[in-house]
Amino acid sequence: MRGNLPDLSIRQLEYLVAVADSPTWAAAAADVGVSPSALSQGLAELERRVGVKLFEASGRRRLLRSAAIPVLDHARQVVALTTDLARWSDRLRTAQSGSVRLGLIDVAAVAHLRDSLRRFRTDRHDVTLTLTVAPSRRLLDQLIDGDLDAVACVEPPEPRPGIVTEPLLTEGLHVFAPPGQRLGPPEEWGPWVLFPDGSHTRRLVEDHLRSLGASVVVAAESHQPDVLREMVLLGMGWTVLPESQGRVSDGDAAPGGAHLLDRQLVLARRSGAVSDPAVDELLERFRRST
Q1: Which domains does the chain have, with CATH numbers?
Q2: What share of the chain has pLDDT > 90, as a percent?
């Protein structure tokens, strides 16, 4: 038998997300279009209905408690799914053909999915296509928050609540060394110029290098593969990139660009989201192209 469910309002959940994502309560209130006092009252009512204390005092500020994280995760999912439903309803009422807000990692945008995106834009002038190119973790955060409809990214190391993924393609990652340096045994590799700490690919690369006995001393970081490649050419260190991003037009950044490991790229969507025909069509084109 189902227990008593708290009578939560979507507005209250929206307040909670706004407070979590804004630097101050005043900014959060402005984001959701209410006064700070109305925001405070709404969150106090949310605490009462959930039955868990969500905030704690820190000087004059009120901070989210760790116990509030499950409530915040639930709030993000509910607000995002409700926004999906509202956008779908608006399109039906106004006879719009649709819009797609797509997130991509750089190599997906410029290499793997480029032709599919071009053909979609040519074939579907009635669909508004908005692209966001960013690292995988940031894209998945935006997907959870409802700012994106779908994402093509590196498979996350652990499942993300509220997100479903499906395999898209497997991509090889290659070791590139500065000009003039040979690809000897792994113990002689490095120092490294890599994606920033916390990126999905950085975690894969570091774990694999250590399993081979290579030392992982990081000399520099960048989210941009082109910058990493140029730092290698300047002799600042070694890197690991997809082959298409590690090579340059007048030669290789390293002899051969030796294959190191594979990474899985996935398509990600919010679980339980209202089906959008335009998004479904674009993702099906991606599936057929890989």
Answers
A1: 10-76 (1.10.10.10), 79-169+265-289 (3.40.190.10), 171-262 (3.40.190.10)
A2: 51
